[in-house]
Design goal:
alpha/beta, 2-enoyl-CoA Hydratase, Chain A, domain 1, Lyase 2-enoyl-coa Hydratase, Chain  A, domain 2, 6-stranded mixed β-sheet, binds ligand T3D
Length: about 260
């Protein structure tokens, strides 16, 4: 039972909705703690096959709640990064299932970088991504300095981080920051449809794909080829590979169990 987030798991699909709409779902201590608990549940969940992260109200997430006592100027900000933001990004990134983010409105500061830590990002056309940190004398966190250059290249990453300009969802799609910008009214349904479909796919294989692509930019070709071999070996023993091949040969729709 949470107050600052909504959280449910049905048929292998977890939907986690940030729920402090009056402050554009910015993170106060309670929301950090509830988010950690939810991510711990997801990390341990048996039969989990996909996660959908979104927000209530007109914003997705405005990053840290700047009125929270934990981030008063002069305090040790490293502490809240160590206790909350870094574990959150690590947990999202380590989930062995696809994590979809439906960015329903502005994503600023850590809010933008939490979205970029997810595997597939859909955004409402009215949504904006803002590296707001520079405007208050801070530094992009929550993996922003890691993900941005990888998503958009050095020049755009520098511009975004140093200027803090808002990037609209369609531009974000054109720049390769996100998967797709969709009409505002269609966002929730489209994201749910995508997540529900992914929750019926070969979860083990998808988890291995996620891991391989995450490792890719830090690896040389040889290491990546070795990783592909190991992952293919593992995938080759899965029930879903057997089902996928049988269904193909029998010209029927596969019924994957995620195992
Ligand atoms: O160690 C650490 O924890 C440090 C970690 C830092 C991580 C970070 O995320 S730092 C960056 C923090 N975020 C920001 O700097 C963004 C601040 N917000 C904004 O710049 C704007 O709100 C937006 C551009 C996101 C949206 O603008 P707009 O005009 O659509 O909405 P608004 O009117 O500014 O905000 C609506 C309400 O939400 C408003 O409250 P009110 O006046 O209706 O009572 C506003 O104060 C509140 N709000 C928005 N963002 C935050 C917030 N309240 C607290 N903290 C916020 N980050």
């Amino acid at each position: 039972n949470f107050d600052t987030i909504e959280f449910e798991i049905n048929d292998g699909l977890a939907v986690l909705t940030l729920n402090r709409p009056d402050s554009l779902n910015s993170f106060n201590k309670q929301m950090h703690e509830e988010m950690q608990q939810a991510l711990d549940i997801l990390t341990e969940a048996e039969g989990l096959r996909c996660v959908l992260l979104t927000g209530n109200g007109r914003g997705f997430c405005a990053g840290q709640d700047l009125s929270d006592a934990a981030v008063l100027p002069g305090g040790d900000l490293g502490e809240s990064i160590e206790n909350y933001y870094n574990p959150m990004i690590r947990k999202i990134s380590a989930l062995p299932v696809p994590v979809i983010c439906a960015v329903n409105g502005v994503a600023a500061g850590a809010g933008a970088n939490i979205a970029f830590a997810c595997d597939i990002v859909l955004a409402a056309k009215s949504a904006k991504f803002i590296q707001a940190f520079c405007k208050i004398g801070l530094v992009p966190d929550s993996g922003g300095t890691y993900m941005l250059p990888r998503l958009v290249g050095h020049a755009r990453a520098m511009g975004l981080a140093l200027l803090g300009d808002a990037v609209g969802a369609e531009q974000a799609e054109n720049w390769g920051m996100i998967w797709k910008a969709v009409d505002d009214e269609a966002l929730r349904e489209e994201a749910l449809k995508l997540a529900q479909n992914l929750a019926t796919q070969p979860t083990k294989g998808l988890g291995l794909i996620k891991k391989a692509l995450q490792a890719s930019l830090g690896n040389d070709l040889d290491s990546q080829l070795e990783m592909e071999k190991a992952f293919q070996r593992e995938a080759g023993y899965s029930d879903d590979y057997r089902e996928g091949v049988e269904a193909f040969l029998e010209k029927r729709k596969p019924e994957f169990t995620g195992k």
